[in-house]
Design brief:
The complex is a heterotetramer. Chain B is an alpha+beta fold. Chain B is built from 15 helices and 20 strands. In chain B, the strands form five sheets. In chain B, strands 1, 8, 9, 10, 11, 12, 13, 16, 17 and 18 form a ten-stranded mixed β-sheet that branches. In chain B, strand 6 and strand 7 form a beta hairpin. Chain C is mainly alpha-helical. Chain C has two domains: about 5-75, no CATH class; about 95-275, MetI-like fold (Orthogonal Bundle). Chain C starts with a helix and ends with a strand. In chain D, helix 11 crosses helix 18 (about 465-485). Chain D has a six-stranded mixed β-sheet with strand order 6-7-8-3-9-10, with helices on both faces. Chain D has a six-stranded mixed β-sheet with strand order 17-18-19-14-20-21, sandwiched between helices. Chain D is globular. Chain D has 20 helices and 21 strands. Classes of the chains: A mainly alpha, B alpha+beta, C mainly alpha, D alpha/beta. The interface of A and C includes residues 117 and 238 of A.
């Protein structure tokens, strides 16, 4: 494990990614304690303030402290993304592995259907689902999960198939091992790595997707501190104070970059080839 | 007294006849209007509906006004002026109104306008199956008949003093009887009106183009060759386009954009105090708002001065929970409500909500200030024990699911031409859209009395009474009134922003020689 | 490539569209919106509504409605919009044409930037250039369109007045103005694609440069220039075709946001308006058309690939 | 023609090369001295990692960035190659020094026509026009014995067979009549018969042009039959060099001795006691057929060229208890397919009988069958789960087939490891910590844990170096002696199989051509294909003495 972390830290992507993600996780875990102000406390006198000692990143249209809002918002933003990715992955993996396991026509049909679903842009897909269920965090979560599932299905299927081709799996079959042992003990340990990598990278997509949904008014609801919502609310005031717009945008980008880097770092570490 | 009333109307007629010439001497017209040119107008919402009897939102009103005419129209001071009707008069009881039409008015398809068309149009508006939003706004009409080619007579269910104003309602446009026979669907893709402009192309979500109607009844107007309505997704985009000179005029502007445009050279900012307001509607017939104390409690949490800042960026005036402000003729001042959390708490406790109330407040996304109002209210009401969850939704969804149905939501209304207009629209028990289900017989009595009275003083008293009752009953919280804001390029002349916010009168506007020449 | 392959491929497209149509129809059925109410507005009377429902066949069982709809689609009739009462097909197609213009513009822009970057990075592997490129791609891939779009508007258009702000000018109306209006949206869409594709090109190129046949070419005495242009480039770029084709799916998604922000009346904006207005026929048509576009693009990509890469054979 | 007549075309003197790695410099070549005279063929023999390829790259001046030339000179035609500028080298490469590579499948650009790939050399070095070059190239192709050069010019690599491709590569190498050609294992990737033909082609061309050649190979037999002189390289050092005859008959260096000893020689039988053919067979295969590939539901394309359906067609054979049955054939002949069918990795039609019990499908394969029939795969690093310790890997058979567990099982595993000559401590290690040979021993141990009656060895030595191979074979023989196990020994190495098998089955394109006792496999009445195979195999070393 320590060796693993060492190797992760050796690659620049791994190192930077890990650091960023750790920082984000700190915000997620302790955001409420780190926030210097009440994220919802309004003040007519302190509207549209630039960064200052009192308000680190300035204040927004209601005179609320942007830094505090970002700190609190980290939770809703990041956790949602991670959870959605997880759900999407689990569902996708189930479909993908099943398809790979069934093989033959079933596989063909399932994968073609997955392709079909993938021909609808995931954003559009999410948009419709949310609009259909009514806009709220949970529905957005569901939407993104569903939108992600097909892609993950494709990947996990590919991985499963490649793992199945390995000689040690053949050896196990020839030995007469039980299927569940083969899947769990022989195949799985060799398939999780790529899936984890894919997941990590997808978290950043999820974050952006959520942000976009909120931006289009179909995700989190005001006065939520979700970052995408902050950006979309800020747009109307960007000519009065661009800080309101810039900070949450940066936050989103930073987290996305973090997970991207971490993902690539993990890929390098987890597959010995490179 | 009836003498005076009649004289007033005859005067009105005389005035109308002169209106064309008179208007020329207004200051804005110091320089004689130049004909020609294309006016590009930005609108922040698609003009989904073309049929004038069905239009619902300001951009659609704008289009309807360009293409069609009504019997009368509203001047900037909210008084009626002649449109298709040359003159009008009422019987003593104010229960029968006679409108005389102009001669030789032609529809865009060449057919001549006759009383029959007027009758058919009004019948269509009043027919429930047409589902016209204006059905209950065009006056208490019982029957409408054509006396002769050019004379229309409205028989009312009761006396009504504001009829010439009612006939100026945005949906009260005149369409050919023939088309009504053949079915109104035709009007959702083409326009056959008597308006100053004719429809050239109609792309609801992108662009609508209209051109001068050469057969318009006024040989002078309109001055513009063409008007182009460009649809923008949000007002930020609109003002960007105005700055870049891609459009000449923004009909309605957000406060934030007003501030942004302030000081941009080549741009005139327009601002007029208005009775336009947002109201927080509370269903008075279901818990918890069935108890007036709860409504008063909530009203007492609102810091109206702060609201003016949060919601209108200062471009508004404090509201006092009645829809009437000094933009109306019969405004009567009530003691301004100041935030008083302690009292609010008390009232809540008395109403049996000692440990607070948890409730969801719905706000449509358009215009954005609904949401701002909701979010601000949420914060203000917190200390008093109101735990409000704000839920925003697309406007269409709101109209479909919440408007006139919801228990607790943010409404947004234009100023109405008269006190009667707004009260009968929203607050009397028989109001067209009585969303709050507020049912106060004294209030109804006062309003109904006022509409049949011609004497100014009496009316003022009655309306003051009504306002007081609503101030106390608080069927809905009206924290602020908005000034109507707009912006135009300096080269657009003779365009004044209208407090009604849904009246535009582009037929008076013209472009100075500074204007860039466009196709 | 064999005719049988082509037929199979086309069959596949139809299968895809069938699935999509089912999904979309199912979704729009669940949508809590009464088509009749949407059409007549909230002031309609019950009688009026009932009449309209009957006329629109809303009372028929769902599957008959579906068949009726799909049958119409096959005759190019997507129904009439509940919002405007206009026929959906033409509106959507017109919108699509604008979106495609934008998409095409973006892809060209993207290739123009991404390919050279990728190659450069691969050839100068591990050098400073390489690092720079990968940095760009990381940032690019992590910026949601609405952020870049908003910032671009704020600075490029409003602050520095380099480019015209939002809006769409048909090229037929004023060519250069039209192009000027396309630059910013196209750039915004391209950013993520550039990031992605340049990465792909790089890794492909790196792989190719490490193959035996490149080594062989060098050892045949060919100059590094000959090897790069004559041998490596072609093989490295071939897979990019597929990647770009697959990215079209993402691009169409991006188009939605970008069109909304830049007020481009394309299919994306139409869809948003339709979705927000619960305009079922428009939603159905829009999604179906988008999916179809995606399929066709990938189909074309496959054909192109097979024509360029002699290894590929069809069964 | 020997080196001492004229000045050598190539002379490497005291050349040492290091690769700078994270763990400090790695000495790839140490003080190499070697020379090739005009018209001479020098063989360079060594096992994988011996540095023979590094030497080739040094001569071609094609070294990776981390290479560091410590000392020595490389002189070509009298002048110092190391001193040449990049552009000068580019002018020499392919013109005066050219190279033939191991695998024609990868050394040709898949997206360029063969014609283009040969003619571009002529354009570059002979300054010919496209047209001329094309014509010239076509002539060259004809010259290397390609039947239809004109068509071949227009073909793409995937449209030509391995042999054809290698001919094109050779034609390219000879295109500019170079003074020196380096052959880097030119036949290793080819099938026995094809490689024979390629070898003959090489020899005739070499005779004709008298080009000096450096022939790199791991296959002593091959080198013995082609080269004039040979250098044996081990761990970056040339341990011995001299005339072929001398080296192979009277090797001085211990490593050379070991190497030569390790080369399988049919005349040296290792098979051990003959099985009892009267006894009732251990396993019988009756009309077993395997069909691969199914019609896909929708059209889909594969990037691989001609993915033809290999399988088995009605194969019949029987194995006696304790017998070693060799199965030989070229790649794609269906050897492995049969193995897979017998171990339940492939669906099959027909019947397999084991100790009389009939088996018609995978479902019929009982645990006892699984226990009695074990398989060992070609690549040990693929057949051992990288994420498990050797101990875990070896524990599986015990859990599956025996009562052993806990301490007892651990002891068994240690015993097993020692039996395959690995220290018991290896139980704690992971596969990647072992060498190729050691891994294969683990695989063997796993197979023998259940003390099976039949072990199927699928090319188990072909991924290993000769010396390692020898020791693995030795181990197999010992184990058979101990347990009386029968082997189904699948390989493409005829010499090896002739050493160890009692009977040999020959397969071709999925058909079983014939089964014959090893002793009379060379008999004239054998099938034509069998004889073809045998002729193709290079003559074993011992007989190559002059």
């Amino acid at each position: 494990m320590t060796d693993f972390i060492k190797r992760l830290m050796r690659s620049p992507q791994g190192a930077i990614g890990t650091i960023i993600v750790l920082l984000v996780l700190v915000a997620v875990a302790f955001g409420p304690y780190l926030a210097p102000h009440d994220p919802e406390a309004m003040s007519i006198l302190a509207r549209f303030k630039g960064p200052s000692a009192d308000f680190l990143l300035g204040t927004d249209q209601y005179g609320r402290d942007i830094f505090s809002r970002l700190m609190i918002g980290a939770r809703s933003t990041v956790i949602m993304a991670v959870v959605a990715t997880l759900i999407g992955t689990v569902v996708g993996a189930l479909v993908g592995v099943t398809s790979a396991f069934l093989g033959g026509r079933a596989d063909e049909v399932i994968m073609r259907t997955v392709d079909a679903v993938m021909s609808i842009p995931s954003l559009l897909f999410a948009l419709i689902i949310v609009n259909l269920l009514g806009s709220s965090d949970i529905n957005a979560l569901l939407a993104v999960s569903i939108a992600f599932a097909p892609g993950m299905a494709r990947i996990s299927r590919a991985v499963a198939l490649s793992a199945r081709k390995q000689d040690f799996v053949s050896a196990a079959i020839a030995r007469g091992e039980k299927p569940n042992f083969i899947v769990l003990s022989e195949m799985l340990p060799n398939t999780v790595a790529p899936i984890i990598v894919e997941m990590t990278i997808r978290v950043s997509f999820a974050i952006m997707l959520f942000a976009t949904l909120s931006f289009l008014g179909l995700g989190a609801q005001p006065p939520s501190e979700e970052w995408g919502l902050m950006v979309s609310e800020a747009r109307r005031y960007m000519h009065i104070s661009s800080w309101i717009l810039v900070w949450p945008s940066l936050a989103i980008a930073l987290v996305a970059i973090g997970f991207n880097l971490l993902g690539d770092g993990l890929r390098d570490v987890l597959n010995p080839k490179t | 007294m009836l003498e005076t009333t009649r004289r007033r109307f005859l005067l009105g007629t005389a005035f109308v006849a002169a209106s064309a010439t008179l208007s020329l001497s207004m200051p804005a017209f110091a320089q004689a209007p130049v004909k020609g040119g294309t006016l590009r107008v930005a609108i922040d919402q698609a003009t989904s509906v073309l049929n004038p009897l069905l239009v619902r939102v300001n951009p659609e009103y704008m289009l309807a006004e360009l293409l069609y005419s009504g019997l009368t129209r509203l001047k900037v001071d909210m008084s009626p002026e002649a449109d298709l009707a040359e003159s009008w008069s009422a019987n003593e009881e104010l229960t029968e109104w006679t409108f005389i039409l102009r001669k030789g008015v032609k529809f865009h398809d060449g057919s001549a306008l006759t009383a029959a068309d007027v009758v058919a149009s009004y019948k269509a508006i009043l027919n429930p199956d047409t589902a016209s939003p204006g059905r209950k706004n065009v006056g208490p009409i019982e029957d409408v008949v054509a006396k002769d080619e050019l004379t229309v007579v409205f028989k009312l269910s009761g006396p009504y003093a504001d009829m010439p104003v009612a006939t100026a309602y945005m949906n009260a446009k005149i369409v050919p009887a023939a088309i009504i026979e053949s079915g109104l669907d035709k009007l959702s893709s083409e326009a056959v009106g008597t308006g100053p402009f004719k429809l050239v192309s109609f792309e609801p979500d992108r662009q609508v183009v209209v051109e001068r109607n050469p057969d318009y009844y006024d040989p002078e107007r309109p001055y513009l060759d063409k008007v182009v309505l460009n649809v923008y997704p949000d007002s930020t985009a609109e003002s960007s386009a105005l700055i870049a000179g891609e459009i000449d005029l923004i009909s309605t502007l957000d406060p934030t954009e007003y501030m942004r445009l302030d000081g941009t050279d080549g741009v005139d900012l327009q601002r007029v105090a208005s009775g336009q307001f947002c109201n927080v509607n509370m269903r008075c017939d279901v818990k918890p708002f069935d108890d007036p104390r709860v409504r008063q409690a909530l009203a007492l949490t609102v810091d109206r001065e702060a609201m003016i800042q949060f919601v209108t960026e200062g471009f508004g005036t404090a509201g006092n929970d009645t829809p009437i402000n000094n933009a109306y003729r019969f405004f009567s001042e009530q003691p301004a409500r100041k935030p008083d959390i302690a009292k609010a708490k008390q009232l809540l406790a008395d109403a049996g909500y000692a440990d607070g109330i948890k409730i969801t407040l719905v706000a449509s996304e358009k215009p954005a200030l609904r949401t701002q109002l909701a979010v601000a209210l949420r914060e203000m009401a917190k200390p008093a024990g109101f735990d409000i969850e704000v839920q925003t939704m697309p406007h269409a969804t709101y109209l479909d699911q919440v408007w006139k149905k919801g228990n607790f939501y943010v409404g947004f209304y234009n100023m109405q031409p008269t006190e009667d207009g707004i009260f009968k629209l929203l607050y009397t028990s028989d109001a067209a859209w009585n969303e709050t289900r507020w049912d106060n017989s004294d209030f109804d009595k006062a309003v109904n009395a006022a509409r049949v009275t011609a004497d100014e003083a009496t009316r003022a008293k009655l309306y003051a009474e009504a306002q007081k009752l609503q101030y106390e009953g608080v069927p809905s919280i009206i924290p602020t009134f908005f000034d109507v804001l707009g912006a135009k390029r300096t080269w657009v002349a003779a365009y004044d922003i209208h407090p009604r916010a849904s009246v535009f009168r582009f037929d008076h506007a013209w472009l100075t020689d500074k204007a860039p020449t466009r196709s | 490539m064999s005719a049988s392959y082509l037929t199979k491929r086309v069959a596949l497209i139809f299968y895809t569209l069938l699935i999509v149509s089912l999904i979309v129809f199912a979704m729009t059925q669940i949508l809590p919106a009464d088509a009749a109410v949407m059409m007549l507005g909230e002031n309609a009377t019950e009688e009026a509504l009932a009449a309209l429902r009957e006329q629109m066949g809303l009372n028929n069982p769902v599957w008959t409605q579906y068949l009726h709809w799909i049958a119409g689609v096959f005759q190019g009739d997507f129904g009439t919009s509940l919002r405007t009462g206009l026929s959906v097909g033409p509106v959507m197609v017109e919108a699509l044409s604008r979106s495609l213009l934008l998409a095409l513009f973006s892809i060209c822009l993207m290739l123009f930037i991404a390919v050279p970057l990728g190659i450069l990075a691969a050839v100068r592997r591990g050098k400073i250039v390489d690092m720079a490129v990968s940095l760009i791609s990381y940032v690019g891939v992590s910026l949601p369109e609405f952020v870049t779009a908003t910032l671009a508007l704020l600075f490029l258009a409003d602050r520095w007045k380099l480019l015209p702000p939002t809006g769409y000018v048909p090229l037929t109306e004023n060519f250069w103005d039209g192009v000027a209006h396309l630059i910013m949206p196209a750039a915004v869409i391209s950013i993520i694609l550039v990031a992605h594709v340049s990465r792909m090109v790089r890794s492909e190129m790196v792989d190719v440069l490490h193959t035996d046949y490149i080594r062989a070419a060098r050892l045949k005495g060919l100059s590094s220039r000959q090897v790069l242009w004559g041998h490596a480039l072609r093989n490295a770029l071939l897979p990019t075709i597929t990647i770009v084709a697959l990215d079209v799916g993402y691009l169409l998604g991006g188009v939605i946001v970008v069109e909304e922000i830049f007020a481009i009346p394309g299919i994306g904006r139409q869809l948003i308006i339709a979705i927000q207005a619960r305009d079922l026929p428009s939603i159905q048509a829009g999604v179906l058309i988008m999916a179809a576009t995606y399929c066709v693009v990938n189909f074309i990509a496959d054909i192109l690939y097979s024509l360029l890469d002699k290894r590929i054979q069809y069964d | 023609m020997t080196s001492d007549t004229a000045a050598p075309v190539l002379s490497v003197e005291g050349y040492s090369l290091d690769y700078l790695t994270a763990k400090g410099p790695f000495h790839a070549l140490k003080n190499i001295s070697l020379s090739i005279g005009a018209g001479e063929i020098v063989g360079l023999v060594g096992e994988s990692g011996s540095g023979k390829s590094s030497l080739a790259w040094s001569i071609m001046r094609y070294l990776p960035g981390n290479a560091h030339e410590v000392s020595g000179t490389i002189r070509f035609d009298g002048s110092d190659l190391m001193a040449r500028s990049n552009s000068e080298i580019e002018a020499i490469r392919g013109k005066r020094i050219s190279m033939v590579f191991q695998d024609p499948a990868t050394s040709l650009n898949p997206t360029l026509s063969l014609g283009r790939q040969i003619s571009e050399v002529l354009i570059r070095h002979q300054g010919l026009s496209k047209k001329q070059a094309w014509a010239e190239a076509e002539a060259r192709l004809a010259h290397v014995g390609l039947k239809t050069p004109a068509q071949m010019m227009h073909r793409y690599p995937h449209e030509a067979s391995g042999g054809e491709k290698q001919r094109v590569v050779i034609a390219t190498a000879f295109a500019c009549n170079p003074e020196l050609i380096i052959f880097d294992e030119p036949t290793t990737a080819l099938d026995v018969i094809t490689s024979r033909q390629i070898l003959e082609l090489f020899q005739s061309l070499q005779q004709e042009t008298g080009v000096a050649s450096l022939y790199i190979s791991h296959d002593l037999a091959l080198v013995a039959s082609t080269a004039h002189r040979v250098s044996v390289i081990n761990r970056g050092e040339i341990v011995e060099q001299g005339k072929v005859g001398e080296i192979f008959t009277r090797p001085q260096d211990p490593y050379t001795k070991k190497l030569i000893a390790a080369v399988p020689d049919p005349s040296v039988r290792l098979a051990g006691s003959e099985p009892d053919y009267a006894a009732k067979p251990l396993a019988e295969v009756e009309n077993v057929s395997v069909i691969y590939g199914r019609k896909p539901f929708f059209g889909r394309f594969s990037k691989k060229a001609g993915n033809h359906v290999t399988g088995n067609r009605a194969v019949n054979l029987a194995i006696q208890p304790g017998e070693i049955l060799g199965i030989v054939g070229e790649s794609g002949s269906g050897k492995s397919t049969l193995a897979k069918a017998m171990t339940g990795l492939n669906k099959f039609e027909g019947e397999i009988r084991f100790e009389g019990r009939p088996i018609h499908s995978i479902a019929d394969m009982s645990d006892s069958y699984r226990r009695d029939v074990q398989i060992i795969f070609q690549h040990p690093d693929a057949s051992l789960n990288p994420r498990k310790t050797i101990g875990d890997i070896l524990s599986r058979p015990y859990r599956l087939y025996t009562e052993y567990s806990g301490k007892a099982m651990r002891d068994e595993i240690s015993r097993l490891l020692e039996q395959v000559k690995l220290p018991a401590s290896y139980a704690a290690r992971y596969p990647h910590q072992l060498s190729g040979g050691e891994k294969q021993r683990v695989a063997i141990a796993r197979a023998f844990a259940s003390q099976p009656k039949l072990v199927i060895c699928d090319e188990i030595t072909s991924a290993l170096d000769v010396s390692v191979q020898a020791s693995v074979i030795e181990l197999l023989m010992e184990l058979r002696e101990e347990f009386g196990t029968a082997y189904l020994f699948i390989t493409h190495d005829l010499n090896l199989v002739r050493q160890i098998a009692h009977r040999i089955a020959v397969m071709y394109r999925g058909d079983l051509i014939e089964i014959a006792p090893t002793r009379d496999i060379t008999a004239p009445q054998r099938a034509a294909y069998t004889r073809q195979l045998l002729e193709a195999v290079p003559v074993p070393v011992a007989r190559s003495a002059p």
